Amino acid sequence: NTGALWGGRFSGGPADALAALSKSTHFDWRLAHHDIAGSRAHARVLHTAGLLDDDELARMLAGLDRLDADVASGAYVAAESDEDVHGSLERGLIERVGPELGGKLRAGRSRNDQIATLGRMYLREAAASIASGVLATIDALVDQAQAHPDAAMPGRTHLQHAQPVLLAHHLLAHAWALLRDVQRLADWDARAAVSPYGSGALAGSSLGLDPNAVAAELGFASAVHNSIDGTASRDVYAEFAWVTAMIGVDLSRISEEVILWATKEFGFVTLDDAFSTGSSIMPQKKNPDVAELARGKAGRLIGDLTGLLATLKGLPLAYNRDLQEDKEPVFDAVDTLELLLPAVSGMIATLTFHTERMAELAPQGFALATDVAEWLVRAGVPFREAHELSGEAVKLAESRGVELWDLSDADYAGISDRFTPDVRSVLSTEGSLTSRSSQGGTAPAAVAAQLTALREQLGAV
Ligand code: ARG
Questions:
Q1: Does the beta carbon of 259 lie inside 6 Å of ligand 1?
Q2: Where in this chain does the record put each Fumarate lyase N-terminal domain (predicted)?
Q3: What domains can be seen in the chain, in order of their start residue?
Q4: What percent of the chain has pLDDT over 70?
């Protein structure tokens, strides 16, 4: 069993079927640089503890640097016989510094604390990159909001016309959700910034190695306080997968709207040619594939999370080999978002909004009925009665196939003497929008204040 990290107590090598099942180099190789960084830090604490002399440390670090460069250039790759990234890199180190020195590095560490640490290192970097992709998507939404400060659209509940809103208000609603995702990644990092290195297989080390020195060198804020927790827990991975799934869901909700808005029936947006696709048979087609793939990939991201949680649920402490299955879901989540975010932000940034069409539809479908009821409330009518009276106006308009503003003063007076001709002051989209001026409302002034608040929070992440 030459080259493997274990074998002394075995008489024969592993069955081919076991070796094939066991192998993880095809996905854990992306942690190679992190593994080598961990090895450098580990060599230093072995030196501090008196287990490597000055010369050995210097040769070890030089060997690790050469190995790192060879991994980067592709001159060193995993061999067919390597089980995982850790074993392969030990082989690579031994090839460079000899078995005598190379064989000393494994003292006081286990693949169990190594892998738990490397995964956190990788995910912390990935989280920073994903956060900047989400921020670019937020920027695209904010730019579109700023480019259309006065455009109105039908605000919907149950997908039915509800009340007119500003397009900017609607777009910024998506921006706030994505901002919380960025904040979640930052909050998550506080829990991810704890290093399991030094936990050993599960019980810590007897060799006087300082986990906090390793943690500091690897960019962590501290080391774990419990070696069992350090090697056996994967909640930090699961939380990461939850946040990435949530980002997927948020992108999917935007995308679903873009898909609807781009239909003939809505006619709210035209997609840029660079962010739409054609049909192999229908020459006229212009399809919103970016948005559809975003919606589809949200399902995949949810699958990554649920698969990981299912892997974890039955595991006794401490390390179990099941935990090798922790990596592909989170790696897939990272890869998926790295592909998706630039496409979605590009799609949003290049949307053309048909603001006349949106404005025309904004007050339709009796979307000003609430304004009529609130006008009555301001005139002293209890809301319960105002709701009824406004509803009667809707019923009358609907029976005639007209909108609320088409009813005459006499029609309103016929419904109730509480109505005066002044009710017309709220029977316009502009009147409705301007009146909703409380914090968080859709009035242009409130939306301008909202944008300032959003920018402030964006500046803090
Ligand atoms: N490749 C394993 C993983 O990804 C780490 C190795 C631990 N193996 C072991 N037999 N203890 O989790």
A1: no
A2: 14-303
A3: 16-107 (1.10.275.10), 116-202+226-360 (1.20.200.10), 365-460 (1.10.40.30)
A4: 99
In this structure, the number of other CB atoms found within 10 A of the CB of residue 13 comes to 13
What DSSP character marks residue 314? T
Distance CA 409, CA 400 (A): 16
Q: How close is the Cα of 322 to the center of ligand 1, in Å? A: 9
Cross-strand bridge partners of residue 157: 160
Shortest-distance Cα residue to atom 10 of ligand 1: 321
Nearest to 144 by CA among 290, 268, 285: 268
Establish whether residue 324 lines the binding site of ligand 1, counting it when its CB lies within 6 angstroms of any ligand atom.
yes
Show the tokens assigned to 424: 């017309």
Residue 193 pLDDT? 98
Q: How far is CA 423 from the centre of its chain?
A: 46
- Mean residue pLDDT of the chain comes to 97
List Cβ neighbours of 431 (8 Å cut-off, separation of 6 or more). 371, 425
Q: Is the CB of 231 under 6 A from ligand 1?
A: no
Strands 222-223 and 194-195: parallel
For the Cβ of 84 lying below 6 angstroms from any atom of ligand 1, the answer is yes
Looking from the CA of 76 toward its CB, the CA atoms found within 13 Å total: 25
The answer, yes or no, to whether residue 1 has pLDDT greater than 60, is no
Q: How far is the CA of 282 from the centre of ligand 1 (A)?
A: 52
Smallest CA separation from ligand 1 atom 6, residue: 111
Nearest-atom index, ligand 1, CA of 114: 5
* Rounded CA separation 239/109 (Å): 26
**What's the mean pLDDT in 279-291?**
92
Q: In DSSP terms, which residues pair with 277 in a beta bridge?
A: 287
d(CA 192, CA 239): 10
Q: What is the ipTM of this complex?
A: 0.94
Which residues lie closer than 8 Å to 107 by C-beta, 6 or more apart?
46, 51, 207
Task: Please state the pTM of the whole predicted model.
Answer: 0.95
